[in-house]
Each structure stands twice: as structure tokens, then as C-alpha cells.
Design a protein that fits this description.
Radius of gyration: 21 Å
Number of helices: 3
Structural class: mainly alpha
Largest sheet: none
């Protein structure tokens, strides 16, 4: 197999989105447990849930960038294929009008 062309899989966008959500939820659980145990501050003022959500987003973003690289590449290939197909279809329709 060549490493240059990722394998085309259906529903790559849905898979990437679900995995990204999973990474976020895992980070949120870890952050919440660490706040509950007292390792992290539970809140800034009265913003406990918001603080934990923002901290989980900050932690999950770089993790998703590294851990989900292959899924993101598959998704971008699928999107590029759809855009190219739409461009070819539009060009074909425009040439028929002339």
C-alpha cells in the first residue's frame, strides 16, 4: 500500500466528528475528576461548568490535532473529492448553456 493516498472510506466526516466529540468528552471527564479531587481549581467565581468546559476544550484541541490526524486526512480527501465533482458538474452545465 502506498502512504501517499489514504484509503477512501464512507462517512469520514461523521467518523471524525464522533471521534472528536469522544476526545472532548474524555477530556471533560478527566478535568471534572481532577477538579473534584482538588488538583485543579473547581471554578473561577461561580462559573464552575463553564470553567470546566473551557478547560476541556483547551486540552482536547491539541490532543485531537495529534490523535485524529489520519481521520482528518480521510475527511479532507472526501471533501476535496466532493468539491471537485461539484466543480466538474458546474463546468459541464455551463458548457451546455453556451
Amino acid at each position: 500500500m502506498s502512504a501517499a493516498a489514504p484509503v477512501r472510506k464512507p462517512h469520514a466526516t461523521l467518523r471524525y466528528t464522533a471521534m472528536r466529540l469522544g476526545v472532548f468528552l474524555a477530556c471533560f471527564v478527566v478535568v471534572a475528576v481532577l477538579a473534584y479531587v482538588g488538583i485543579l481549581p473547581e471554578a473561577i467565581g461561580r462559573a464552575n461548568p463553564l470553567w470546566l468546559l473551557m478547560l476541556a476544550m483547551v486540552v482536547s484541541a491539541p490532543l485531537s490535532l495529534v490523535l485524529l490526524r489520519r481521520q482528518r486526512d480521510e475527511m479532507s480527501v472526501r471533501i476535496a473529492e466532493r468539491v471537485d465533482h461539484a466543480k466538474r458538474k458546474l463546468a459541464a452545465n455551463q458548457s451546455q448553456e453556451d
